[in-house]
Specification:
This protein is of the alpha+beta class and 190 residues long. The protein has ten helices and four strands. The longest helix has 17 residues.
Length: 190
């Protein structure tokens, strides 16, 4: 089974955003607490797109994620899943230890071919050899990126990907459930 890596996790402004969720019904915001009340949980469970869960955008999450090329392409659809920086296939494909970069679903014969293409390019430094190496790279190639997002985006990702065909998405959704107050603010009754 694919094991994704999620490291260097930081959650910001959880309490501050819970407090801010109470502003719309308050005349004195200083009196609002960061207590996780039934009303806050109800707002967190509101339907995606209703706007009632807007306070979740203030709960920011930063982390390093190692995903396959296939999953990265799908991750790019989430507008508020921001890439801070990532490993570069373009700059480093000829430098990676390819035996370590592919997941278990990449056929060993393909890895041998990729190593041959890499060796040839490293000998010739020919542009055509480089493009053959780059474009032959399979979807099971894994790269790490630093990402930032928020609980509202993670709520959408969870609802759309928890039963996804790609195992890395299902594993990512399991990780979402481990975040502080995830059941009350992101997942709901599932």
């Amino acid at each position: 089974m694919i094991k994704i890596k999620i490291e260097n996790i930081k959650v910001y402004d959880l309490n501050e955003s819970i407090k801010a969720s109470k502003y719309s019904m308050s005349t004195k915001t200083d009196d609002c607490s960061d207590e996780l009340t039934n009303t806050v949980i109800k707002l967190g469970h509101s339907p995606k797109g209703s706007g009632e869960d807007q306070f979740l955008t203030g709960i920011r999450v930063a982390f390093d994620l190692t995903f396959t090329n296939k999953a990265w392409i799908e991750a790019e659809r989430y507008r508020f899943l921001e890439f801070v920086s990532s490993q570069s296939t373009m700059h480093r494909i000829s430098k990676f230890d390819l035996s370590q970069q592919y997941n278990e679903y990449v056929d060993k014969r393909i890895i041998e071919i990729m190593n041959e293409l890499k060796d040839k390019y490293n000998q010739t430094h020919n542009k055509e050899d480089y493009l053959k190496l780059l474009y032959s790279n399979p979807c099971g190639f894994e790269l790490t990126a630093r990402l930032t997002t928020n609980y509202r985006c993670l709520k959408t990702i969870y609802s759309q990907r928890k039963n996804h065909t790609l195992p890395e998405w299902r594993e990512f959704c399991i990780w979402i459930t481990t975040l502080p107050n995830a059941k009350d603010l992101i997942i709901g009754d599932d």
